[in-house]
Amino acid sequence: xxxxxxxxxxxxxxxxxxxxxxxxxxxxxxxxxxxxxxxxxxxxxxxxxxxxxxxxxxxxxxxxxxxxxxxxxxxxxxxxxxxxxxxxxxxxxxxxxxxxxxxxxxxxxxxxxxxxxxxxxxxxxxxxxxxxxxxxxxxxxxxxxxxxxxxxxxxxxxxxxxxxxxxxxxxxxxxxxxxxxxxxxxxxxxxxxxxxxxxxxxxxxxxxxxxxxxxxxxxxxxxxxxxxxxxxxxxxxxxxxxxxxxxxx
Length: 249
Known about the structure:
Residues 52-138 form the Methyltransferase type domain. Keywords: Methyltransferase, Transferase. It comes from Phycicoccus endophyticus. This is Methyltransferase domain-containing protein. The chain is α/β, with parallel strands linked by helices and 249 residues long. It has one domain: Vaccinia Virus protein VP39 (Rossmann fold), CATH 3.40.50.150. Helices cover 33% and strands 26% of the residues. The protein is built from nine helices and eight strands. It has an eight-stranded mixed β-sheet with strand order 1-7-8-6-5-2-3-4, sandwiched between helices. Strand 5, helix 5 (125-131) and strand 6 (132-143) form a beta-alpha-beta unit. Helix 1 (4-13) packs parallel to helix 8 (197-206). The protein starts with a helix and ends with a strand.
């Protein structure tokens, strides 16, 4: 295995835009939820006319669908991701709209048959209700509570209050309060394994909300301990949590 310094330098130089994780191939593994969100989404996109995808990243999930609606709109708040989404989805006729987190969705009332998202940053249920047409559906995969917290708390220490966030039943209750009817709610806990320190550095650079003050210099001591464990043949194990939610207006 290459040195700590070489692995870290490679991870710090690597591209982290978009929502693809191909850079981790062979260096980390994450079990997937059993429902197959991209496949389920593709089935719906092939049958509808007006669809909105929120927090699309680089458009990777939408682009997996063989058939897209006549009107397909995606939003993204990080300019490098929005640029990537335009390059990927623009040739397929998709409109990419840059938004600001926390602001209302820039669309008219009752504009979409389906609003979808994979791992939205923050769910604004009243806004989702507003832009859905009558009988329209919100269909999404959300990050669940305490996801990847084995790694996050390894660096930051215990975070009991943060562990309570993203509760799927709480989110379902919020959707109902906003006027939606929750038709399905499924949860999953999936194993993650990291095989070298470069993979850890890369994921912390990409998922900046995990450890907001992350830098290699600041956490070098903790990273070197993890590096020594992985060099001894012990991958670092964490668990992601996900929930699938379908809610209809």
